[in-house]
Design a protein that fits this description.
about 400 residues, mainly alpha, Glycosyltransferase, binds glycine
Length: about 400
C-alpha cells in the first residue's frame, strides 16, 4: 500500500475539487441559515431550525458554528466568521439553564465558543468555554471503593431515584477535548485527570474486545463497575451501532492526541480495524453492523466521523502502520461523495442518508419522518472536517 504522503498527494486534486464544491455551497448557505441553529432539512432542502422546534439546548447545536469556524479557519472568508459568531449569540441563553446542560457541553460549546477563542482570542468566549469545562468536570462520579470514576451522561429525572442514572455513553469520548483544553489553558491538570479517568472507564466498559462498542453502560456508584449495558441506539443489546463505533475511533484517537497515552491509541486502532472490516466492500456504513442485512439502512454520519478518526490515525502512526487508515478514509469519503453528497447550493444540506434514531419501526416511505436516511448537521460537519484534514488544514475544534 502506498505511504501516507503519496496517498495524500495523489488524492489532493480530488479533495480540492470536493472542497471547492463545498465552499461554493456554503457561501450561499452560510448567509441563508445565519439566524438559525440548523439540524436537518425540510422537503425543500431548507435547514430546519432547532430554535423554532423549541430545542435550543439540543446536543447538536454546536455543529453549525463549528462548521463555520473550520470553514473560516481554512478560507479566511469573513462571512463564515460572522455566521459562527451569530450562532454563539443564539446559543448563549442556554448557558443560563443549568438543568438543560449535560455531558454534551463539549460538542455544543467547545466547537463554538472554544473554537472562537482559539481562532480569534476572544476572552469572553474563552470564559464561557471554561465554565462549560467546569460543568463537565462536575459531572464526574467519584467511585468510593476504588480509585477513579466516570462522567455521568445525563441528568436524572425529578421524582426518580437519581442513583439509577449513573450512565455513561461512548459518545462522551468526543466531549473530553474540552477538559484537556481547559487543563492546558489554566495550567492545571485537574480537568485532564477527570478526562483520563473517564476515558479509562470507556476503554474498559464500552470498547469491546472485537473493537465494537456498548453504547450505554450503567455503573455501580461505589465501585464504578459495569452494572448493565443498554442498546440505546442500535438494533439490540450486543449489536453494533455504527455511529457509536465512529465515536470510539475518533474519540480515543483524540484522547491520544491530548495525552500521548499508548492505551488510547491502541483503543482507537482496535475500533478503527473493526470499523474498516465492517464497511469494506461498498464503503457505505450501515446503521448497525450487526442488524439484519435487509432492509439496507445507512448512516452517513458514522462514515464521516470515522473518516476523521481514520485520517487522524494515519497522520499519527509511523510509516507501515498509518497507510491502511488513510486508504480506508479515502474509500469512505469517495463512496459517500458519490452516493450521499448534495453539492447543489440551492439545498442547505451536504450529506443525505444520515440516521438519527435506530431502531425505527417504519416503512421506506416513512424513513425521513422516523429519523432514517435524512441529512443531519453533524454528518455535514464531519464530512467537511475530513476533506479539510486531507488538505492539511491546521485547525479543528478538538
Ligand atoms: N450523541 C447522540 C447520537 O450520536 O445519536
Amino acid at each position: 500500500m502506498k505511504n501516507v504522503e503519496t496517498q495524500l498527494r495523489e488524492n489532493r486534486a480530488w479533495a480540492e475539487e470536493v472542497f471547492s464544491k463545498i465552499d461554493r455551497k456554503y457561501n450561499a448557505v452560510t448567509l441563508r441559515s445565519r439566524d438559525k441553529l440548523p439540524y436537518g432539512v425540510d422537503e425543500n432542502g431548507i435547514h430546519i431550525d432547532t430554535i423554532e422546534r423549541n430545542r435550543r439546548s439540543w446536543w447538536t447545536n454546536g455543529f453549525w458554528g463549528g462548521l463555520n469556524w473550520i470553514l473560516y479557519a481554512y478560507t479566511k472568508n469573513e462571512e463564515y466568521k460572522t455566521t459562527a459568531k451569530r450562532s454563539e449569540e443564539l446559543l448563549r441563553p442556554v448557558a443560563d439553564e443549568y438543568g438543560r446542560l449535560d455531558h454534551d457541553v463539549g460538542f455544543v460549546w467547545h466547537m463554538t465558543f472554544g473554537a472562537d477563542y482559539r481562532l480569534t482570542g476572544d476572552k469572553t468566549a474563552k470564559n464561557i468555554d471554561l465554565y462549560m469545562a467546569a460543568l463537565l468536570a462536575s459531572r464526574f462520579v467519584l467511585a468510593s471503593k476504588v480509585p477513579g470514576g466516570f462522567i455521568r451522561a445525563w441528568n436524572g429525572k425529578r421524582g426518580t431515584d437519581w442513583n439509577n442514572y449513573d450512565r455513561t455513553i461512548i459518545d462522551c469520548m468526543m466531549n473530553l477535548p474540552l477538559l484537556y483544553w481547559a487543563s492546558d489553558v489554566t495550567d492545571d491538570d485537574r480537568f485532564a485527570r477527570i478526562a483520563r479517568a473517564h476515558a479509562d472507564v470507556s476503554l474498559r466498559d464500552h470498547l469491546r474486545e472485537d473493537g465494537s462498542v456498548n453504547h450505554i453502560v450503567d455503573h455501580d456508584r461505589e465501585t464504578g463497575a459495569l452494572k448493565e449495558t443498554f442498546a440505546g441506539q442500535g438494533y439490540s443489546v450486543g449489536s453494533s451501532w455504527s455511529r457509536g463505533c465512529s465515536w470510539a475511533v475518533y474519540g480515543f484517537a483524540l484522547s491520544y492526541r491530548h495525552t500521548g497515552e499508548e492505551r488510547y491509541l491502541e483503543a482507537a486502532k482496535r475500533a478503527a480495524d473493526y470499523f474498516i472490516d465492517c464497511v469494506k466492500g461498498d464503503w457505505l456504513p450501515r446503521v448497525d453492523f450487526r442488524a439484519p442485512e435487509e432492509p439496507v439502512l445507512y448512516d452517513s454520519t458514522a462514515g464521516a466521523c470515522a473518516a476523521c478518526g481514520l485520517i487522524e490515525l494515519a497522520k499519527i502512526l509511523p510509516e507501515g502502520e498509518g497507510e491502511k487508515y488513510l486508504d480506508a478514509a479515502l474509500h469512505l469519503l469517495r463512496a459517500m461523495e458519490e452516493k450521499f453528497c448534495d453539492f447543489d447550493p440551492a439545498n442547505d444540506h451536504l450529506l443525505d442518508y444520515g440516521t438519527e434514531r435506530y431502531p425505527a419501526e417504519i416503512s421506506p416511505e416513512g424513513y425521513k419522518k422516523a429519523g432514517v436516511h435524512m441529512s443531519i448537521i453533524y454528518g455535514d460537519y464531519f464530512y467537511v472536517e475530513a476533506i479539510l484534514k486531507l488538505l492539511g488544514a491546521e485547525f479543528d475544534p478538538w
